[in-house]
Amino acid sequence: MYSLIVKMAWKNSFSRLSRTLLLITMIAVSMSMMIGIQGLYDGMANNMLDKNKRSASGDISIFAKEYRVQKDIKYRIKNAETIKKDLEGVAGVKAVVLRVKADGLGATARKSSFASLYGIDLEGEEKFGKFSEFLKEGEISFDNRGALIGLELAKTLKLRIGSKLIFSTQDVHGDINSISLKINAILQTTNISLDSNALFIDRKKVYKFLGINDGEVTQIAIMGEEESLENSLKDKYPEYDVKSFLELQPMMQMMQDMMFIFNSITFFIVMSVVFVGILGVMYVSILDRIREFGIMLGIGMHYKYIRMQIFLEAIFVSLSGYLSGAFLGAVLLVYLRDYGIDLSAFSDALEMWGYESVIHGTIKLSYFTTTFAAIITASILSILIPLRKIKKINPIDVIKAEK
Q: What three-state secondary structure class fits 356?
Protein backbone atom coordinates (compact mmCIF):
# COMPACT_ATOMS: atom_id res chain seq x y z
CA MET A 1 0.00 0.00 0.00
CA TYR A 2 2.73 2.45 0.95
CA SER A 3 4.63 1.93 -2.31
CA LEU A 4 1.38 2.56 -4.20
CA ILE A 5 0.80 5.79 -2.25
CA VAL A 6 4.32 6.97 -3.10
CA LYS A 7 3.80 6.24 -6.81
CA MET A 8 0.45 8.03 -6.82
CA ALA A 9 1.91 11.02 -5.01
CA TRP A 10 4.80 11.28 -7.47
CA LYS A 11 2.50 11.03 -10.48
CA ASN A 12 -0.01 13.54 -9.11
CA SER A 13 2.75 15.98 -8.16
CA PHE A 14 3.47 16.51 -11.86
CA SER A 15 0.03 15.83 -13.31
CA ARG A 16 -0.45 19.58 -13.81
CA LEU A 17 3.03 20.14 -15.17
CA SER A 18 2.79 23.86 -15.92
CA ARG A 19 1.41 24.62 -12.45
CA THR A 20 4.07 22.49 -10.76
CA LEU A 21 6.91 23.98 -12.78
CA LEU A 22 5.68 27.47 -11.92
CA LEU A 23 5.77 26.62 -8.22
CA ILE A 24 9.22 25.01 -8.49
CA THR A 25 10.51 28.09 -10.32
CA MET A 26 9.04 30.39 -7.67
CA ILE A 27 10.67 28.41 -4.86
CA ALA A 28 14.01 28.17 -6.68
CA VAL A 29 14.24 31.86 -7.59
CA SER A 30 13.08 33.04 -4.15
CA MET A 31 15.46 30.71 -2.37
CA SER A 32 18.48 31.56 -4.54
CA MET A 33 17.90 35.29 -4.13
CA MET A 34 17.57 34.87 -0.36
CA ILE A 35 20.76 32.82 -0.16
CA GLY A 36 22.57 35.40 -2.29
CA ILE A 37 21.43 38.26 -0.05
CA GLN A 38 22.47 36.37 3.08
CA GLY A 39 25.90 35.68 1.60
CA LEU A 40 26.25 39.32 0.58
CA TYR A 41 25.24 40.65 4.01
CA ASP A 42 27.63 38.30 5.79
CA GLY A 43 30.37 39.04 3.29
CA MET A 44 30.05 42.78 3.95
CA ALA A 45 30.21 42.24 7.71
CA ASN A 46 33.10 39.77 7.53
CA ASN A 47 35.08 42.03 5.22
CA MET A 48 34.72 44.98 7.56
CA LEU A 49 35.67 42.88 10.58
CA ASP A 50 38.68 41.43 8.77
CA LYS A 51 39.97 44.85 7.66
CA ASN A 52 39.52 46.31 11.15
CA LYS A 53 41.35 43.40 12.75
CA ARG A 54 44.25 43.49 10.29
CA SER A 55 44.68 47.25 10.38
CA ALA A 56 44.10 47.95 14.06
CA SER A 57 43.41 45.69 17.01
CA GLY A 58 43.84 42.14 15.76
CA ASP A 59 41.81 39.53 17.60
CA ILE A 60 43.17 40.69 20.96
CA SER A 61 45.05 43.79 22.10
CA ILE A 62 47.06 44.43 25.25
CA PHE A 63 47.36 47.93 26.74
CA ALA A 64 48.78 49.38 29.90
CA LYS A 65 46.26 50.04 32.65
CA GLU A 66 44.52 53.41 32.28
CA TYR A 67 45.84 53.97 28.74
CA ARG A 68 42.50 53.52 27.02
CA VAL A 69 40.89 55.98 29.43
CA GLN A 70 43.64 58.61 29.63
CA LYS A 71 45.11 58.29 26.10
CA ASP A 72 48.46 59.39 27.54
CA ILE A 73 51.78 57.83 26.50
CA LYS A 74 52.93 57.77 30.10
CA TYR A 75 50.64 54.73 30.39
CA ARG A 76 52.69 52.45 28.17
CA ILE A 77 54.00 48.90 28.19
CA LYS A 78 57.71 49.08 29.02
CA ASN A 79 58.73 45.44 28.51
CA ALA A 80 56.90 44.94 25.21
CA GLU A 81 59.70 43.07 23.43
CA THR A 82 59.81 40.46 26.19
CA ILE A 83 56.02 40.07 26.13
CA LYS A 84 56.09 39.73 22.34
CA LYS A 85 58.60 36.87 22.52
CA ASP A 86 56.49 35.16 25.17
CA LEU A 87 53.31 35.56 23.10
CA GLU A 88 54.91 34.13 19.97
CA GLY A 89 55.43 30.91 21.89
CA VAL A 90 51.80 30.67 23.05
CA ALA A 91 49.66 28.06 21.30
CA GLY A 92 47.04 29.66 19.05
CA VAL A 93 48.94 32.93 18.49
CA LYS A 94 49.53 33.53 14.77
CA ALA A 95 51.19 36.95 14.77
CA VAL A 96 52.10 39.77 17.16
CA VAL A 97 52.92 43.43 16.42
CA LEU A 98 53.99 46.34 18.58
CA ARG A 99 52.62 49.83 18.03
CA VAL A 100 53.16 53.28 19.53
CA LYS A 101 50.36 55.81 19.21
CA ALA A 102 50.33 59.55 19.91
CA ASP A 103 47.39 61.90 19.33
CA GLY A 104 48.13 65.37 18.10
CA LEU A 105 47.71 67.86 15.28
CA GLY A 106 48.61 67.43 11.63
CA ALA A 107 49.11 70.70 9.76
CA THR A 108 50.07 72.02 6.36
CA ALA A 109 50.61 75.63 5.30
CA ARG A 110 46.87 76.02 4.71
CA LYS A 111 44.99 73.47 6.80
CA SER A 112 45.20 71.54 10.03
CA SER A 113 43.33 68.61 11.53
CA PHE A 114 43.37 66.24 14.48
CA ALA A 115 45.55 63.23 13.70
CA SER A 116 46.99 60.15 15.35
CA LEU A 117 50.62 59.19 14.79
CA TYR A 118 51.30 55.44 14.73
CA GLY A 119 54.80 54.06 15.04
CA ILE A 120 54.87 50.68 13.31
CA ASP A 121 57.24 48.11 11.85
CA LEU A 122 56.37 47.49 8.20
CA GLU A 123 57.75 43.95 8.10
CA GLY A 124 55.79 42.96 11.20
CA GLU A 125 52.60 44.64 9.94
CA GLU A 126 52.86 42.82 6.63
CA LYS A 127 53.05 39.49 8.41
CA PHE A 128 50.31 40.50 10.82
CA GLY A 129 47.70 41.88 8.43
CA LYS A 130 49.06 42.10 4.86
CA PHE A 131 49.59 45.83 5.27
CA SER A 132 50.50 46.33 1.61
CA GLU A 133 46.91 45.50 0.59
CA PHE A 134 45.79 48.83 2.07
CA LEU A 135 47.87 50.83 -0.42
CA LYS A 136 45.72 53.26 -2.41
CA GLU A 137 48.42 55.40 -4.00
CA GLY A 138 52.18 55.82 -3.82
CA GLU A 139 54.77 53.46 -2.34
CA ILE A 140 54.87 52.00 1.14
CA SER A 141 58.20 53.27 2.45
CA PHE A 142 59.53 55.31 5.36
CA ASP A 143 62.58 56.63 3.47
CA ASN A 144 63.37 60.37 3.54
CA ARG A 145 61.17 61.23 6.55
CA GLY A 146 58.45 59.24 4.83
CA ALA A 147 54.97 58.77 6.25
CA LEU A 148 51.83 56.93 5.22
CA ILE A 149 48.48 58.68 5.59
CA GLY A 150 44.85 57.60 5.71
CA LEU A 151 42.76 58.44 2.65
CA GLU A 152 40.20 60.67 4.37
CA LEU A 153 42.86 62.58 6.33
CA ALA A 154 44.72 63.18 3.08
CA LYS A 155 41.52 64.59 1.57
CA THR A 156 40.93 66.79 4.63
CA LEU A 157 44.44 68.24 4.53
CA LYS A 158 44.49 68.21 0.70
CA LEU A 159 47.70 66.18 0.61
CA ARG A 160 49.14 64.24 -2.30
CA ILE A 161 52.13 61.99 -2.75
CA GLY A 162 55.23 64.06 -1.97
CA SER A 163 53.34 66.66 0.08
CA LYS A 164 54.80 67.88 3.39
CA LEU A 165 53.09 68.22 6.75
CA ILE A 166 53.99 68.90 10.35
CA PHE A 167 52.73 66.71 13.20
CA SER A 168 52.77 68.16 16.71
CA THR A 169 52.10 66.49 20.05
CA GLN A 170 53.31 66.27 23.65
CA ASP A 171 56.30 64.04 24.32
CA VAL A 172 56.83 61.90 27.40
CA HIS A 173 58.08 64.95 29.36
CA GLY A 174 55.03 67.04 28.54
CA ASP A 175 56.82 69.29 26.04
CA ILE A 176 55.30 70.11 22.63
CA ASN A 177 57.34 68.48 19.88
CA SER A 178 56.91 68.63 16.13
CA ILE A 179 58.13 66.44 13.33
CA SER A 180 58.23 67.17 9.61
CA LEU A 181 56.93 64.38 7.40
CA LYS A 182 56.71 63.67 3.68
CA ILE A 183 53.78 61.68 2.31
CA ASN A 184 55.04 58.56 0.55
CA ALA A 185 51.74 56.68 0.33
CA ILE A 186 48.00 57.04 0.85
CA LEU A 187 46.25 54.11 2.52
CA GLN A 188 42.65 52.98 2.54
CA THR A 189 41.96 50.42 5.26
CA THR A 190 38.15 50.93 5.31
CA ASN A 191 38.68 51.33 9.06
CA ILE A 192 36.96 54.69 9.49
CA SER A 193 39.06 55.90 12.43
CA LEU A 194 42.35 55.10 10.67
CA ASP A 195 41.37 56.47 7.27
CA SER A 196 40.19 59.71 8.91
CA ASN A 197 43.05 60.29 11.38
CA ALA A 198 46.05 58.02 10.91
CA LEU A 199 49.64 58.85 10.08
CA PHE A 200 52.07 55.92 10.02
CA ILE A 201 55.83 56.29 10.45
CA ASP A 202 58.69 54.04 11.48
CA ARG A 203 58.46 53.03 15.13
CA LYS A 204 62.13 53.88 15.81
CA LYS A 205 61.50 57.49 14.75
CA VAL A 206 58.59 57.69 17.17
CA TYR A 207 60.81 56.57 20.06
CA LYS A 208 63.15 59.47 19.41
CA PHE A 209 60.33 61.91 18.70
CA LEU A 210 58.43 61.15 21.92
CA GLY A 211 61.49 60.59 24.09
CA ILE A 212 60.64 57.05 25.13
CA ASN A 213 62.92 54.01 25.26
CA ASP A 214 63.20 51.36 22.59
CA GLY A 215 60.73 48.53 23.10
CA GLU A 216 58.14 50.65 24.90
CA VAL A 217 54.74 50.67 23.20
CA THR A 218 51.13 51.66 23.78
CA GLN A 219 49.62 48.56 22.14
CA ILE A 220 50.44 44.92 21.55
CA ALA A 221 48.11 43.50 18.88
CA ILE A 222 47.65 39.75 18.52
CA MET A 223 46.17 37.55 15.81
CA GLY A 224 44.90 34.33 17.33
CA GLU A 225 43.03 31.22 16.30
CA GLU A 226 41.48 29.99 19.56
CA GLU A 227 38.48 31.52 21.33
CA SER A 228 39.95 30.62 24.72
CA LEU A 229 43.07 32.69 23.99
CA GLU A 230 41.60 35.89 25.43
CA ASN A 231 40.89 34.36 28.84
CA SER A 232 44.28 32.69 29.01
CA LEU A 233 46.03 36.00 28.23
CA LYS A 234 43.97 37.82 30.86
CA ASP A 235 45.15 35.27 33.39
CA LYS A 236 48.72 35.47 32.12
CA TYR A 237 48.92 39.29 32.16
CA PRO A 238 46.63 40.53 34.97
CA GLU A 239 48.69 43.73 35.30
CA TYR A 240 47.68 44.81 31.78
CA ASP A 241 44.42 45.64 30.05
CA VAL A 242 43.63 42.71 27.73
CA LYS A 243 40.72 43.33 25.37
CA SER A 244 39.10 41.35 22.56
CA PHE A 245 38.30 42.85 19.17
CA LEU A 246 34.57 43.24 19.90
CA GLU A 247 35.29 44.83 23.29
CA LEU A 248 37.43 47.43 21.59
CA GLN A 249 34.99 48.00 18.75
CA PRO A 250 31.42 47.45 19.98
CA MET A 251 30.14 49.02 16.76
CA MET A 252 31.26 45.86 14.98
CA GLN A 253 29.09 43.78 17.30
CA MET A 254 26.17 46.09 16.63
CA MET A 255 26.78 45.78 12.89
CA GLN A 256 26.79 41.97 13.15
CA ASP A 257 23.51 42.12 15.06
CA MET A 258 22.02 44.39 12.41
CA MET A 259 23.08 42.02 9.64
CA PHE A 260 21.47 39.14 11.55
CA ILE A 261 18.24 41.14 11.81
CA PHE A 262 18.32 41.99 8.08
CA ASN A 263 18.92 38.33 7.22
CA SER A 264 16.10 37.23 9.52
CA ILE A 265 13.64 39.70 8.00
CA THR A 266 14.61 38.66 4.47
CA PHE A 267 14.33 35.00 5.42
CA PHE A 268 10.86 35.52 6.93
CA ILE A 269 9.57 37.43 3.89
CA VAL A 270 10.85 34.88 1.38
CA MET A 271 9.58 31.91 3.39
CA SER A 272 6.18 33.59 3.67
CA VAL A 273 6.06 33.89 -0.11
CA VAL A 274 7.06 30.24 -0.47
CA PHE A 275 4.40 29.20 2.06
CA VAL A 276 1.66 31.11 0.24
CA GLY A 277 2.80 29.69 -3.10
CA ILE A 278 2.76 26.08 -1.91
CA LEU A 279 -0.55 26.61 -0.10
CA GLY A 280 -2.19 28.07 -3.22
CA VAL A 281 -0.99 25.31 -5.53
CA MET A 282 -1.85 22.49 -3.12
CA TYR A 283 -5.28 23.94 -2.32
CA VAL A 284 -6.21 24.35 -5.99
CA SER A 285 -4.82 20.89 -6.77
CA ILE A 286 -6.97 19.32 -4.05
CA LEU A 287 -10.08 21.21 -5.15
CA ASP A 288 -9.54 19.90 -8.69
CA ARG A 289 -9.40 16.35 -7.34
CA ILE A 290 -12.01 16.55 -4.59
CA ARG A 291 -14.25 14.00 -6.38
CA GLU A 292 -11.28 11.66 -6.71
CA PHE A 293 -10.64 11.81 -2.98
CA GLY A 294 -14.36 11.29 -2.30
CA ILE A 295 -14.33 8.12 -4.39
CA MET A 296 -11.19 6.89 -2.59
CA LEU A 297 -12.90 7.41 0.77
CA GLY A 298 -16.10 5.85 -0.54
CA ILE A 299 -14.43 2.60 -1.56
CA GLY A 300 -12.89 2.25 1.87
CA MET A 301 -9.46 3.86 1.69
CA HIS A 302 -8.48 5.16 5.09
CA TYR A 303 -8.05 8.92 5.50
CA LYS A 304 -4.47 8.49 6.72
CA TYR A 305 -3.40 7.17 3.28
CA ILE A 306 -4.91 10.18 1.54
CA ARG A 307 -3.20 12.44 4.06
CA MET A 308 0.12 10.69 3.36
CA GLN A 309 -0.34 11.08 -0.38
CA ILE A 310 -0.99 14.82 -0.12
CA PHE A 311 1.92 15.21 2.27
CA LEU A 312 4.25 13.42 -0.16
CA GLU A 313 3.00 15.53 -3.07
CA ALA A 314 3.90 18.70 -1.18
CA ILE A 315 7.30 17.27 -0.22
CA PHE A 316 8.12 16.18 -3.77
CA VAL A 317 7.32 19.60 -5.21
CA SER A 318 9.11 21.43 -2.39
CA LEU A 319 12.21 19.26 -2.67
CA SER A 320 12.33 19.86 -6.42
CA GLY A 321 12.14 23.58 -5.79
CA TYR A 322 14.74 23.36 -3.00
CA LEU A 323 17.25 21.41 -5.09
CA SER A 324 16.85 23.85 -7.99
CA GLY A 325 17.17 26.80 -5.62
CA ALA A 326 20.20 25.27 -3.87
CA PHE A 327 21.96 24.86 -7.21
CA LEU A 328 21.17 28.42 -8.34
CA GLY A 329 22.05 29.78 -4.89
CA ALA A 330 25.40 27.97 -4.87
CA VAL A 331 26.25 29.34 -8.32
CA LEU A 332 25.29 32.85 -7.18
CA LEU A 333 27.33 32.59 -3.97
CA VAL A 334 30.41 31.38 -5.86
CA TYR A 335 30.08 34.31 -8.25
CA LEU A 336 29.67 36.79 -5.37
CA ARG A 337 32.63 35.28 -3.55
CA ASP A 338 34.97 35.35 -6.54
CA TYR A 339 33.83 38.48 -8.39
CA GLY A 340 31.58 40.41 -6.02
CA ILE A 341 29.30 43.30 -6.89
CA ASP A 342 30.94 46.47 -8.16
CA LEU A 343 29.33 49.50 -6.51
CA SER A 344 31.99 51.99 -7.56
CA ALA A 345 29.27 54.53 -8.36
CA PHE A 346 28.56 54.68 -4.61
CA SER A 347 32.18 54.30 -3.47
CA ASP A 348 32.30 57.57 -1.52
CA ALA A 349 29.25 56.69 0.54
CA LEU A 350 30.43 53.10 1.09
CA GLU A 351 33.92 54.18 2.15
CA MET A 352 32.39 56.62 4.61
CA TRP A 353 30.81 53.65 6.39
CA GLY A 354 33.85 51.41 6.10
CA TYR A 355 32.81 49.29 3.11
CA GLU A 356 34.74 48.59 -0.06
CA SER A 357 33.36 49.61 -3.45
CA VAL A 358 33.44 45.96 -4.56
CA ILE A 359 31.44 43.83 -2.13
CA HIS A 360 32.13 40.11 -2.00
CA GLY A 361 29.86 37.46 -0.56
CA THR A 362 30.62 34.48 1.63
CA ILE A 363 29.43 30.86 1.64
CA LYS A 364 28.07 29.01 4.66
CA LEU A 365 26.46 25.59 4.92
CA SER A 366 23.87 27.08 7.29
CA TYR A 367 22.29 29.00 4.39
CA PHE A 368 21.23 25.71 2.84
CA THR A 369 20.34 23.77 6.00
CA THR A 370 18.11 26.49 7.46
CA THR A 371 16.42 27.02 4.10
CA PHE A 372 15.82 23.28 3.77
CA ALA A 373 14.20 23.14 7.20
CA ALA A 374 12.08 26.21 6.44
CA ILE A 375 10.83 24.90 3.08
CA ILE A 376 9.92 21.51 4.53
CA THR A 377 8.12 23.24 7.41
CA ALA A 378 6.29 25.50 4.95
CA SER A 379 5.26 22.43 2.94
CA ILE A 380 3.83 20.68 5.97
CA LEU A 381 1.95 23.77 7.17
CA SER A 382 0.58 24.51 3.70
CA ILE A 383 -1.36 21.23 3.49
CA LEU A 384 -3.15 21.60 6.84
CA ILE A 385 -6.05 23.65 5.45
CA PRO A 386 -6.59 21.42 2.37
CA LEU A 387 -6.50 18.32 4.59
CA ARG A 388 -9.21 19.75 6.83
CA LYS A 389 -11.42 20.21 3.77
CA ILE A 390 -10.91 16.60 2.70
CA LYS A 391 -11.61 15.32 6.19
CA LYS A 392 -14.96 17.10 6.25
CA ILE A 393 -16.23 15.92 2.85
CA ASN A 394 -19.10 13.46 2.56
CA PRO A 395 -18.07 10.76 0.05
CA ILE A 396 -21.66 10.09 -1.07
CA ASP A 397 -22.36 13.77 -1.81
CA VAL A 398 -19.10 14.16 -3.67
CA ILE A 399 -19.64 11.03 -5.79
CA LYS A 400 -23.18 12.13 -6.73
CA ALA A 401 -22.02 15.63 -7.64
CA GLU A 402 -21.22 16.45 -11.25
CA LYS A 403 -17.66 17.02 -12.24
A: coil
